[in-house]
Amino acid sequence: MNGATIEVLYFAQVAEHLGTRRETQALDAPISAGAWLDALAARCPALGPVNRLKLAINQEHAGRQDTIRPGDEVAVFEPVTGG
Question: Which comes out higher in pLDDT, residue 68 or 80?
């Protein structure tokens, strides 16, 4: 890695499927959250349709159109329901 990285946090079944709760990933240039999620799904097809997953970038909810930049913290989690 050349120093341009992001910290990624995985929660619940996302972490179980990936076998880790946290990792550092190389990221040389900004990327859309949607493209990043698509790459995650290609890496781990067991995650199922990634459109259902939620993201937070630097502890703020984010959508597929938002941008992930080197130095960001990205959290990936499943939607939560209650009742």
Answer: 68
